[in-house]
Design goal:
The complex is a heterodimer. In chain A, α7 (115-125) packs antiparallel against α9 (170-186) and α12 (248-268) runs antiparallel to α13 (301-314). Chain A is α+β, with helices and mostly antiparallel strands. Chain A has helices at residues 8-13, 20-33, 53-56, 59-72, 85-94, 106-111, 115-125, 144-153, 170-186, 192-196, 200-218, 248-268, 301-314, 348-362, and strands at residues 2-7, 37-39, 44-48, 77-82, 98-100, 235-245, 271-282, 287-298, 321-332, 367-371, 382-384, 410-424, 427-432, 441-454, 461-470, 475-481, 487-493. Chain B is an alpha/beta fold. Chain B has 9 helices and 15 strands. In chain B, a hairpin with a 5-residue loop joins β6 and β7. Classes of the chains: A alpha+beta, B alpha/beta.
Chain lengths: 494, 300
């Protein structure tokens, strides 16, 4: 048996579209009695009453309890109970108060309802221009897979049509069914029973499959099963400490205690953590908040604790800690498929921990993958985060490099070192560094100058570069800055 | 050399007494290709019978401008092109990623850990004169020593995590005195971490630093000349001679090193075209091919 709850005030006053709060109240009322609740258009929800007879009694008693519950929350509703969802909706739209129909009597019960009830139900499912506030996402029929598909496609969510699938856009579907209903009125049909009594084949010939779908609805038949709302799940934990703690070592025990059950919850739900937020309420009444975006989904409590502690090492709280809040943003868990033919890649959890430790040791901006920017500036590069999850990357082997000699490496000084250069006949003859250990000596051979400049619109460069071989066997690159006329060593060719 | 018949009789006798499981061979087993990391240089890989051994600590050593960094750069690029990960612990932040990209490396597979570029003035002074920070215990340590310490810790973290085909620790510009101040157990500990794994670790330096028993030392040299004696410059011969020469000073003879640089063009329009050198390999485990040196060439 199914129960449909509809806001009575909205139907009777023909008022504007219901608010999100009203639908939320309807859902909350229905969920008091049954966990299987499905939104059924604006201002209406359908609930599966299977198995509630033992708890609440007859269908009539259940319906009256639903109405009383809604009244306690300040909402006047109509309740209809029937063997199918469609029949319950039609009766809720068509009859005030509480309506209960025994199983098997749906067709007869709805046959007397005017055609306008069907119009109201169908067009409510296909709003042409959705007016009023958009309902929260959780009020739409969804499942985890649908949620994923929506996120990937980034398309706006829309209520699924209650009368079957159609490939029409909402606007086109609205027009189509409006036209069909107008045609039915022109034929002189006034009740749902009139429509249900027509020949299905003749109806299909004249109005197509949409007409047949409407006829099924007029008979109280369901186009599909009830798809219940998936409740929002929260993966969080909170702990008020008996006395304030200072330092990361005692905090690590607290984090371990909080994260273990949360990670267990993640595992039971097949989820993993995409991000973790830690709020530390301090004795100074401040709140120290740190949020970590994880490079790969993780649900290992020890890894999460390590990452949080490494982050707090770099950003420690300013005072003792009174309470700890942990909140995890879930994402579907990873499906790993190892290959027998390729060498195993490091696990993303291990790599995330490694990168966090290296960042704490050397500096966050000192570890990563190099990226060459689109510039001619000598030695230009940027650092990109090293991909922790290498398993998803293609293992395509790049082609072999050309058979030419491999390129020489330049050991570059990040800040070119000033030197003194003796010039003879416009060529460097001796390089003299003021510091022992740098390349110095008589120039045996040299190549240049290679004039280079660029980025004149910012802090550009203008230099003449030379490759010089010194008498001690060192080959290095020096340059003369044309702005300052100073000589520098750029690096050693090795 | 025992005859084949006698050998067969001996084996059957041992088998009869159920002692055949103790049979082995004194000849070294040819390394499986999966146990080696190619350097990307065909001539050197052929000499090394495939490349650098995995699970071992090896070293590439040589003076400045001998091509040592270019050799390691080619190995890192080759590893990433084959789909593996490479880590580069750059102690004093000297590497130029443009060279890796030019060699065809997949830079997204390179984990580059950059130390801090210690001002070069710090490298040249005696440690007791270098500006330093006092540490617990009263012993003052230089900035270079701190940089080296962090680099070794980073190397340990990377090796502990595993999953990398090649890990390089660049000690080329670190003064030898600072490197030798490291406890000798450092390298033993690193070898224990490496052992049995699939990571090849390479130390890049000026002089021999450390090498595990299964690893190898690749010394790069450019031609030497001996000033003042009028003789032709000696070319480095077998590595044994080279090793002995490097451990005993040339008494009474002052040897200077020429660069292996190659030049092209006339006097007014010369350009550097590359560096030529020779690589000599030594490894503790004797293999079928250990003699001779390998000529290498790197270009611009």
């Amino acid at each position: 048996m199914f129960a449909c709850l509809v806001e009575a005030g909205r139907l009777e006053r023909q008022g504007p579209a219901p608010s999100a709060d009203g639908v939320a109240v309807l859902v909350a009322v229905a969920q008091v009695f049954s966990p299987r609740v499905e939104p059924a258009g604006p201002g209406a929800v359908v609930s599966d009453l299977s198995g509630l007879e033992r708890l609440f009694g007859t269908a009539d008693a259940i319906a009256r309890e639903l109405r009383r519950e809604a009244a306690d929350r300040g909402l006047a509703i109509r309740v209809a109970v029937a063997g199918t969802r469609t029949a319950a909706r039609l009766l809720a739209y068509g009859r005030p108060g509480v309506t209960v129909i025994e199983r098997g009597g749906e067709a007869d019960a709805v046959s007397a309802l005017p055609l306008g009830v069907l119009r109201r139900m169908v067009l409510a499912d296909v709003p042409r221009h959705p007016s009023g506030p958009r309902l929260p996402a959780r009020f739409y029929r969804t499942s985890p897979m649908q949620e994923l598909a929506r996120q990937r496609s980034a398309e706006p969510r829309s209520a699924e049509l209650q009368f079957g699938h159609t490939n029409l856009t909402p606007d086109a579907a609205h027009e189509r069914f409006h036209d069909i209903l107008a045609t039915l009125s022109q034929w002189g049909l006034k009740t749902l029973g009139d429509l249900a009594g027509l020949s299905s084949a003749s109806l299909a010939e004249r109005l197509g499959q949409e007409g047949v779908a409407l006829q099924r609805l007029a008979r109280g038949e369901d186009p599909g099963p009830l798809v219940p709302l998936v409740p929002d799940e929260r993966f969080e934990a909170h702990l008020d400490l008996e006395w304030p703690i200072e330092g990361l070592e005692p905090l690590s025990f607290v984090l371990g205690r909080l994260l273990e059950p949360v990670c267990g919850h993640l595992e039971r739900r097949g989820r993993a953590a995409a991000a973790i937020a830690v709020e530390l309420r301090l004795v100074s009444r401040d709140v120290h908040v740190r949020r970590l975006q994880l490079p790969a989904p993780v649900r290992d409590a020890r890894v999460l604790r390590t990452l949080v502690l490494l982050d707090l090492e770099s950003h420690p709280p300013a005072a003792g800690i009174d309470a700890v809040d942990v909140r995890i943003e879930p994402t579907p868990g990873r499906v790993l498929q190892y290959s027998l033919l390729e060498r195993a890649q490091p696990a993303p959890e291990q790599m995330s921990t490694l990168l966090a430790r290296l960042g704490a040791l050397m500096g966050q901006d000192r570890c990563g993958s190099p990226v060459l920017p689109d510039t001619w500036r000598p030695g230009a590069f940027t650092m990109a985060p090293f991909a922790a999850d290498q398993s998803s990357r293609s293992r395509q082997v790049r082609p072999d490099p050309p058979a030419d000699p491999p390129p020489l490496a330049l050991r570059r000084y990040r800040q070119p070192v000033p030197v003194r250069v003796a010039v003879e006949q416009h060529r460097p003859a001796r390089v003299m560094a003021d510091r022992v250990g740098l390349a110095s000596g008589r120039v045996e051979r040299c190549a240049g100058p290679w004039r280079t400049s660029g980025e004149w619109w910012t802090d550009g460069w203008r230099r003449d570069e030379w490759d010089v071989a010194l008498d001690d066997g060192t080959v290095c690159r020096i340059f003369r800055d044309r702005e300052t006329q100073g000589w520098f060593i750029e690096g050693v060719i090795d | 050399m025992p005859s084949a018949t006698a050998l067969a009789d001996l084996e059957s006798l041992l088998r009869a007494r159920k002692l055949d499981t103790t049979l082995t061979t004194a000849l070294p087993l040819a390394p499986h290709q999966d146990d080696l990391v190619p350097t990307g240089l065909a001539a050197l890989d052929s000499h090394l019978l495939g490349g650098l051994p995995r699970g071992q600590l090896s070293e590439v050593i040589g003076p400045q401008s001998s091509g040592r960094t270019s050799l390691v750069q080619a190995a890192v690029a080759d590893v990433t092109r084959r789909g593996e990960l490479a880590a580069l612990i750059d102690t004093l932040d000297r590497w130029d990623p443009a060279g890796l990209a030019e060699r065809g490396a997949d830079l997204s597979r390179v984990l580059w850990v950059r130390g801090h570029d210690v001002p070069t003035s710090q490298l040249s002074l005696a440690p007791e004169w270098e500006p330093s920070r006092p540490v617990t215990g009263g012993r003052r340590r230089s900035q270079v020593a701190h940089a080296l310490d962090r680099a070794v810790k980073a190397l340990t973290l990377v090796l502990d995590a595993g999953g990398f085909g090649l890990v390089v620790l660049d000690l080329a510009d670190v003064p030898l005195a600072v490197v030798r101040d490291l406890p000798f157990t450092t390298w033993m500990r690193l070898h224990r971490v490496l052992e049995g794994g699939s990571t090849a670790c390479v130390l890049l330096g000026a002089e021999p630093i450390a090498r595990s028993a299964g690893g190898m030392s690749i010394r790069l040299e450019t031609p030497r000349i001996h000033a003042g004696d009028g003789r032709e410059p000696e070319r480095p011969g077998a590595f044994d001679a080279e090793v002995r020469a490097s451990r005993r000073p040339f008494l009474g003879r002052r040897a200077t090193r020429t660069s292996g640089a190659r030049w092209a063009g006339g006097l007014g329009a010369q350009r550097l075209t590359g560096v030529s050198c020779e690589a000599a390999v030594v490894r503790a485990q004797r293999t079928l091919q250990t003699t001779g040196t390998v000529p290498l060439s790197f270009g611009t």
